[in-house]
Design goal:
With about 900 residues, the chain is of the alpha/beta class. Helices cover about 35% and strands about 15% of the residues. It is an enzyme of class 1 (oxidoreductase). Pfam families: Molybdopterin, Molybdopterin_N, Molydop_binding.
Length: about 900
């Protein structure tokens, strides 16, 4: 250790005397309004909303919601946050799988026992040493590309210092690793849409709510359920959308829902339900297009001015190129919607000021790109895109879609630095990559090869619950030498790991975040509420300790503690311009501009707080694609042509068999159109009481929805009667990939032939290999959406169903695994860790980053955004950045720096 390269241990000693000067930073937030109430309340914020925690004797005993910040708190906040904090599924100590601990020196680690054998409780120095050794062994023996980060998404907590970002920062200091490309949420849409309409669309702001309320006559929900999915948020939910949806509904807007099942939004918005066979949306929009063309209802002037390739696609719709006219009668046999209904719907859309909202669910399917593209083409055919109250949107269900944009700068995180590994694995192709090292695959216009993965590092992510065909993934992991997980709870990912580093929950560490996905109108202090439970540590300290073991502590921390970085993060936000950090931290939140307030609540809010509606008229009247519509020459789209590409030469020239250059109907490998007798189509929407798998370990929440302790499966009443199934029975859903046991919810709100089971369940295998808990991914297929996006097709799956006659006892998914806590573990010889190998790995890597590169990795790679600049062309980046820059809160100067970096280093820059 030298003065220039201090270690964590020496820093902690030297800084202990300074802690007193930061006492203000640990003070409590607003006291209870009731002067007789217990006063020890601490402000915190989560995905589920902001709140004040009530702490007694160091224990969390309750929480108080804050309606001035979260208008309609959900049970995930009021029940879930409390329940999971002290739940029995907490990982209280560092853990190593028994065989891995016994065989780490010899290599006899028995990977086939992952998920089956006991865990051994160890100390922190042991897990840091074993993790450091595994990282160095993998990098030096197989190359850094053999280290694979499965930490995509960043949904583990709402803070800036997310574990996936901290992991990226540390591993990039030693040369980097293979990352994922794309994501699970909208993998097909985010790849195809920049080619078609010049923007990712799926994470983009939607037309402001007022423009819908005041102009729209018909709002078509295509698989879209905003009332349910807006219950959670990537940062901090405030549930501000409900009052606006009510205003839109009460102003007379008609809602039509195209969906295999009736949704919460359908009930809330009084939607007219159009039942459709899953995965057939493309056929429906093709048939409506045919009817429009047959009756001369198209807008030729619009297509001529705003689109390219219309004639090629129209020829296909009419059947001139394949001999099959896409008539309503043709589509009726595919979609299950009567031909006359298809005609009537087409005419109603044309005659009305219509907005069409597509869900992410419809592109999580084989040929999912075609579903999105057919909606775009139909809307362009009838001249809707860019007009007030009309057009298309694919993010109405996410992050308060429709919220006016604030344009505020948000808190910044720590830079991940440069990753010197350029190999990627598409997020839904992990199993295939593990099985096929060296295999070529095509992704987004480029040919890549899968790395030979020897180590999986997973921080704050539950990839074992996300990936399709879970049994196949379990088998594929047997070739991996080490799986490391950083997590708070015994999720599926941790149960199938070798080394588990127990993280503190967000309530047990300080962090900072912001609220309002599109408004960015407030900054939140995620203040430490209680001390870390048992021997868990905050994520920052976990990676700080691992960095120290590797000799990278100074580089990782910049020789500063986390609060220093939190203050820097706040200083970069818009709130810092008018609210000092100390005042912000004391209060718990600070506004950037004024909060968005629905008109029906404005008078009450003004009377109480004196605040006014602060969003500009321009923001409240903003219409998606209106600049392009108003002047397409001055505001071209970021497509090759600058227009909407109804036929896309760029995609066509890729010659991808399952993704041609225009939206066409293609048969699915599994759907009701090819089903055998008795087979049913499974859809797996986002849950009501969870964020994917998060909150699954809240017992009070499970009591609200589980059936006999299992995931509920919604079944049409006739399908249930045909199989002798009654409401509340346990049933088995099965195919050649696996079997799950679930609890029957018999309903007429789902169409015959379709069953619905929420994704994100926690798994538990019984002695017959069945998932006794109901994790749907034991049934789903690894079939990619297409060769363009390589995205998930989770909603393209057939099963059979029967009543379960032999369940093997209760669901044990929410119990901790077997743990051995009385083995004396020998101290690991530091010489065997081999940290001296790091110098050779990093000697040539640490070149200075340009300002734009630093901002890119610091601000733009922490959520739903591409992380490797060389995997996208300059034109694609131009289509991605309109969504990416606002989410990152970049100002014009920062955006220009990043764009310069992207344009200089994109795939086609040389």
């Amino acid at each position: 250790m030298t003065f220039l390269n201090p270690t964590r241990r020496t820093f902690l000693k030297s800084s202990a005397a300074a802690l007193g000067s930061t006492s203000l930073l640990g003070s409590t937030s607003l006291a209870s309004i009731d002067p007789n109430s217990y006063s020890d309340r601490i402000f915190h914020a989560t995905h589920y909303g902001p709140f004040e925690a009530v702490v007694r004797d160091g224990k969390l005993v309750g929480l108080t919601t804050m309606t001035e910040l979260d208008s309609r708190p959900t049970e995930m906040l009021t029940y879930g946050v409390m329940d999971r904090t002290y739940d029995k599924t907490r990982i209280n100590y560092p853990m190593v799988r028994k065989s891995y601990l016994e065989g780490w020196e010899t290599g006899d680690i028995k990977p086939e026992l992952r998920g089956k054998e006991e865990w051994v409780k160890v100390d922190w120095d042991t897990v840091w040493s074993l993790t450091a050794k595994a990282l160095l062994d993998t990098a030096t023996e197989h190359g850094n590309e053999a280290i694979f980060s499965s930490s995509y998404g960043g949904w583990s907590n709402a803070g800036v210092f997310r574990p996936n970002v901290l992991q990226g920062r540390l591993i990039n200091l030693m040369g980097g690793c293979t990352n994922t490309a794309g994501d699970w949420s909208a993998g097909a849409g985010q790849v195809c849409m920049p080619h078609i309409i010049g923007d990712m669309e799926v994470y983009s702001p939607q037309s402001a709510w007022e423009t819908i309320r005041d102009n729209t006559e018909l709002f078509v929900l295509v698989g879209c359920d905003p009332i349910k999915n807006n219950r959670i948020e990537y940062r901090v939910a405030d549930h501000g959308m409900y009052a606006y949806w009510e205003e839109i509904r009460d102003n007379g807007v008609k809602f039509i829902s195209i969906n295999p099942q009736r949704t919460a939004s359908d009930v809330y918005l009084n939607s007219e339900w159009k039942r459709i066979i899953p995965n057939t949306d493309t056929a429906l929009f093709l048939a409506m297009s045919y009817h429009v063309l047959e009756n001369g209802l198209e807008d030729r002037a619009y297509m001529d001015k705003y689109t390219v390739g219309a004639d090629k696609w129209i020829a296909y719709v009419k059947g001139e190129t394949d001999g099959t006219p896409k008539t309503p009668a043709w589509a009726a046999t595919i979609t299950g919607i009567d031909a006359q209904e298809i005609k009537d719907l087409a005419e109603l859309i044309v005659a009305s000021k219509t907005c069409i909202a597509g869900s992410w669910a419809i592109q999580r399917a084989q040929h999912g790109e075609m579903a999105y593209w057919s909606i775009v083409n139909f809307a362009a055919l009838v001249g809707k895109i860019g007009k007030p109250g009309e057009g298309i949107g694919f993010s109405w269900h996410y992050g308060n879609g429709g919220m006016p944009q604030g344009g505020n700068a948000t808190p910044v995180g720590m830079s991940q630095g440069r990753n010197f590994v350029t190999k990627v694995v598409p997020a839904s192709r992990i199993t295939e990559a593990l099985e096929n090292p060296g295999k070529e695959f095509f992704y987004n216009g480029q040919t890549n090869t899968y790395p030979d993965i020897k180590m999986v590092f997973n921080a704050g992510n539950n990839f074992m619950s996300h990936q399709q065909d879970t049994n196949r993934l379990i088998r594929a992991l047997n070739k991996v030498e080490t799986v490391v997980c950083v997590d708070v709870w015994w999720t599926a990912a941790t149960r199938w790991a070798d080394i588990v580093l127990p993280a503190a929950s967000t309530l047990e560490q300080d962090d900072i975040t912001s609220g309002g996905t599109y408004s960015n109108d407030r900054v939140y202090a995620m203040k430490k509420v209680i001390e870390p439970v048992e021997d868990s540590l905050p994520d920052y300290e976990i990676f700080e300790g691992l960095a120290d073991k590797l000799g990278l502590w100074a580089q990782f921390t910049d020789s500063e503690d986390k609060m220093y970085h939190i203050q820097l993060a706040y200083a970069a936000s818009g709130a810092a311009k008018h609210t000092p950090f100390e005042e912000f931290w004391e209060q718990g939140y600070a506004f950037m501009g004024e909060p968005l307030i629905p008109e029906r609540e404005m008078k009450r809010k003004r009377k109480r707080s004196g605040r006014t509606h602060g969003f500009t008229k321009q923001a409240r009247k903003w219409v998606r694609h209106n600049d392009f519509y108003s002047d397409p020459e001055a505001n071209p789209l970021h497509t090759t042509s600058g227009k909407i590409e109804m036929f896309c030469e760029t995609i066509a020239n890729m010659e991808i068999k399952d993704c041609p250059g225009m939206p066409v109907w293609m048969e699915k490998h599994e759907y009701l159109g090819s089903a055998k007798e008795g087979q049913l189509h499974v859809v797996s929407p986002h849950p009501w009481f969870r964020l994917h798998s998060q909150m699954g370990n809240s017992e009070r929440l499970r009591d609200l929805y589980m059936v006999q302790g299992r995931e509920p499966v919604r079944i049409n009443d006739q399908d249930a009667a045909d199989r002798g199934i009654e409401d509340g029975d346990l049933v088995e859903l099965y195919n050649d990939r696996g079997t799950v046991i679930a609890g029957a919810v018999v309903s007429d709100g789902i169409m015959p032939g379709v069953v619905s089971i929420y994704e994100g369940g926690w798994p538990q295998l019984d002695n017959k290999g069945r998932c006794n808990s109901g994790l749907v991914n034991f049934l789903t297929s690894t079939q990619p959406a297409s060769g363009l996006s390589q995205a998930t097709s989770a909603n393209t799956v057939l099963v059979e169903m029967r009543k379960c006659e032999d369940p093997e006892g209760p669901n044990m998914a929410y119990d901790p695994p077997a743990i051995i806590d009385d083995i004396e573990v020998a101290e690991i010889n530091e010489d065997k860790v081999g940290t001296e190998r790091l110098a050779a790995l990093t000697e040539a890597l640490m070149a200075d980053m340009s300002p734009g590169e630093k901002i890119f990795f610091e601000r733009c790679t922490v959520c739903h955004a591409p992380r490797e600049v060389t995997h996208y062309t300059r034109q694609q980046w131009k289509g991605i950045t309109p969504s990416m820059f606002p989410r990152a809160g970049l100002d014009e100067e920062e955006a220009a720096l990043v764009m310069d970096y992207l344009m200089t280093n994109a795939a086609d820059a040389n």
